Amino acid sequence: MAEKGNFDFIYNPIKEKMQELVSHINYTTYIEKLTPVDIDGRYIVLETPTESFAKYITGTLAEKMREAIIKADVGLVDFRLRVEGSDGYAYNSPDEENEVIPPTNLDKRFTFDTYVACKNNQFVHAAALSVADDPAGTYNPLFIYGGTGLGKTHLLQAIANKIIVDKPNLKVIYVTCEQFVNEIIDTMFTSRGPDARDRGNRLRHHYRNADVLIIDDIQFIANKKAVQEEFFHTFNELVSKGKQIVISSDRPPKELEALEDRLRTRFQGGLVYDVQPPTYEDKIAILKRKAFDKKCLVPEDVLEFLANGSGDDVRTLEGRLTKVIFAAKLHEVAITVELAKSALSEAVSEGNEEITSESVISAVAAYYRVSKSELTGKSKKKEIVIPRQICCYLMCELLSLPLISIGKELGGRDHTTIIHSRDKIEEMVRVNDKIAKDVDDIKNIILKK
After folding, report:
1. Integer distance in angstroms from the first to the last C-alpha of the chain?
2. What residue segments make up the domains of the chain, in order of their start?
3. Beta carbons within 8 Å of 359's beta carbon, 6+ residues apart
4. Which end of the chain is more exposed for a tag (fewer CB within 10 A), N or C?
5. pLDDT digits (tens, 9 = 90+) for 157-212
6. Taking a C-beta distance cutoff of 8 angstroms, is the pair 313, 150 a contact?
């Protein structure tokens, strides 16, 4: 059993929501007596002092508890209840075995409508759309590979988002390989106590009962024999049940040398497509679409300037556009080529010091009075997570670095985590005056204004 108190950081926001949803007497009598003792997948495990408490919560407050968990937006979807001193659960979600819960780690902006299907990538786009329209129909597995920043994640999440809308009865799981590996390793090597076997079985059940399993960046499974073994059996069981599997990688299956042959051959047995770098014309089309999504009119000569020096990385291309739009809003001036050149030139302070990842991390750490090791570490405390997400946001805004490089600077996080953090702070800046002020103050410190 996990040590009590370790999960307050994730349970406190849920309690705050519960205060809004239940009567004061129910809150003080029952909710305040619950203790968070574990995180089980996307469930928080709560311990209650007596059987009678458990029965009352199960019969009267369970629905409000689930609502509070969703509204708290802490990455969880429900709770399990355990009476103090017992090993089993006194409460599970109703119809949990058959319940279909949409993934909470998808970016709803990643759709087929927002994906610019370049001429070079019409076939991979069509294949992804076909899978979304008819899961496990023709292309299974679908294996998409290509360099960093070319849109693989967008395509994978577009598949998931479309299936969720069109076929809400299907259980769709989208997960990065990093998340998948961490879950398997955590279950295999850190679970202790009488329910350790149950945790492993529940995780296995979670993945092997998916209708659509989508794993991003499968190359990170290389050299992890135990994880490959688990994935091999999951893969076989899903395919035998006629379920869809979609995988992305930075290389084709034949070049994943650290992968077991039996997995490599299964990947090659499906449809394998690569995502090609955009042409100059494609870049212009992408920039126009991104500008439209940001509700901003960008002159043609500025689009041409941005496209000319962007390289092949679509994320870098979008990052250049974002910096120019941000500079225009910051200085309240029109978007011109001159502004773009200024915004994209090496950002320097008055002392002519180049802005680096280290300088951004140091500024954020100093502002929030946390250590740099905490900022780049694994802590999930709110007082660390928000500064870390602001750090992601500022590095995306101020540095001409691919997202994967920013992730490496921040403790080896994957690009989807960086995207989530960047987008979350971008939204918070619009609606939260304190966050907006913090971001502005830190930026001025970095730029020494």
Report:
1. 51
2. 8-83, 119-274, 280-344, 357-447
3. 353, 446
4. C
5. 999 999 999 998 888 999 888 888 877 877 765 555 555 556 667 778 888 888 99
6. yes
